[in-house]
């Protein structure tokens, strides 16, 4: 699929048909993050892929207890997704890389202008979304509340303490989601025109 054809198909999908994703398809999707940008080739992105019913149900339970509310008029989201990918980052990979001789500035690690471990996690997340579409599937993304919720997810799935949860991505074959679509920002807010987003030569 050409990129110009793929991109308009990207939308948040919050409801999926009860069909599993073949392992080989899923492996192609998640392997794309190895091609995502990575500051200094630090490669701090990490993924935890949930496909079995029990882990997916456990994550949905934790999110519900944290206040994840769908509303009676909306379709099941996490419960219907055959694949949930936890997108994570390991900040220490970036510090380790930028303490190597070829990255030092005056013998010191750089002063990070922005936390590129989160920038790179976002790039990896977008790779997952687009790769899913390229495979004929659909995907959605959600944040994971910090604090107690993140710690419960960490404990439930054995995520190391030096790995930070960034977001979750749901993947599967799309089912109709009119309840969600009616209340999402995509339907209630206009897309900004290019002139509001892009500047040329000077602000």
Question: Can you offer a commentary on this structure?
Answer:
This protein has 203 residues and is of the alpha+beta class. It is 37% helix and 14% strand. The chain has helices at 3-6, 23-31, 53-65, 91-97, 116-134, 148-157, 178-183, 185-188, 194-197, and strands spanning 45-50, 83-89, 138-143, 164-172. Strands 1-2-4-3 form a four-stranded antiparallel sheet. The radius of gyration is 19 Å and the shape is globular.
Please specify the SSE layout and strand pairing.
Layout: H1 3-6, H2 23-31, E1 45-50, H3 53-65, E2 83-89, H4 91-97, H5 116-134, E3 138-143, H6 148-157, E4 164-172, H7 178-183, H8 185-188, H9 194-197
Antiparallel strand pairs: 1-2, 2-4, 3-4
Helix pairs in contact: 2-5, 3-6
For the sheet with most strands, the description reads:
4 strands, antiparallel
Q: Please write the string of helix (H) and strand (E) elements.
A: HHEHEHHEHEHHH
Strand content: 5-15%
Number of strands: 4
| DSSP helix fraction | 25-40%
Q: Can you count the helices?
A: 9
Report how far the terminal alpha carbons are from each other. 35 Å
Structural class: alpha+beta
Mean pLDDT: 91
Residue stretches low in confidence (pLDDT < 50, at least 5 long) are: none
Radius of gyration from the alpha-carbon trace, in angstroms: 19 Å
Rough outline: globular
- Placed side by side, the strands forming the largest sheet appear as 1-2-4-3
């Amino acid at each position: 699929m050409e990129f110009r054809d793929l991109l308009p198909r990207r939308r948040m999908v919050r409801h999926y048909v009860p069909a599993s994703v073949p392992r080989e398809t899923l492996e192609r999707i998640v392997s794309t993050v190895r091609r995502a940008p990575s500051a200094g080739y630090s490669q701090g992105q990490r993924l935890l892929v949930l496909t079995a019913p029990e882990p997916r149900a456990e994550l949905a339970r934790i999110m519900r207890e944290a206040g994840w509310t769908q509303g009676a008029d909306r379709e099941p989201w996490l419960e219907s997704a055959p694949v949930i990918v936890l997108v994570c980052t390991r900040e220490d990979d970036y510090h380790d890389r930028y303490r190597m001789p070829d990255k030092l500035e005056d013998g010191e690690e750089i002063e990070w202008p922005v936390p590129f471990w989160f920038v790179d996690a976002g790039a990896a997340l977008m790779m997952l979304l687009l790769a899913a579409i390229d495979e004929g599937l659909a995907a959605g993304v959600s944040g994971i509340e910090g604090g107690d919720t993140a710690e419960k997810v960490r404990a439930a799935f054995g995520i190391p303490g030096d790995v930070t949860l960034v977001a979750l991505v749901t993947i599967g074959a799309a089912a109709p989601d009119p309840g969600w679509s009616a209340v999402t920002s995509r339907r209630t807010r206009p897309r900004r025109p290019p002139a509001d987003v892009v500047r040329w030569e000077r602000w």
